[in-house]
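Quick start: read one record
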Amino acid sequence: VAHRDNTWLSPNGVTKCLDCVPVLLVGNIFYGILESSIGSFFQSEACQMDTRANTSRLDGFQFSGDFFRLANPLAIVLWTPVLVRVVYPLVERSIGREVSVGMKVTVGYCFAITSQLTASALERSRVQRGVLEDVPSRCAPKMEDGTHIRASDMSALWMLLPYALSGMGEIMVYPVMQHLAYEGAPTEMKSLMQAFTLFSMGALPNAMASGVSQALAKMVPNDLNDGNLSFVYLINSSIGLIGLFIFWAV
């Protein structure tokens, strides 16, 4: 599709676009694989925690596992002005130059990997806690007897942390990739490059994440107590590190 060095092509709009393609593909795909955990592994983990609003009531209201995903957009809303008005100006004064695309993406990846490691630590802690035999988790899968898997004795509010860390990383990667695509394309091809960027943010990483999920399916059964989800997070973190290394290589 593209090469690291396109000097052998005639200098035109297509050449400029091709120069951006490797960075866009690597940056978006590998980060997207990490982000795919939000709608799958994070939610499954939250659903096997105690999702009750009032833990003193056995049959009280329970939040959906997806409720805790609100920490992701909330972190984006709160973290963006802090980045723009505080963090970036402070770093620029310290290093004497503008914060580069590479620096932003690297820190964004670090947030995403930290999110995976945090979720892994929480999962290990959840497994070690006892099971609340009288509290079936209504958002967890059903067992063979038709009842839901029992919740662990650990508040699902802990999942707000990895969701928030993921959001803080997201704001430092996706908008930066879109800006890179816009600045790197000539005027007549900016819309095309934006479309390609959105494609590499959505369809491609989701397809690859599906393959990873299928390969690790035995580690993530319906009842997470019978699997090894914490190790899956470590694998995801390794994929993120590999993607970050390739990002700098291209």
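The chain has a mean pLDDT of 89.
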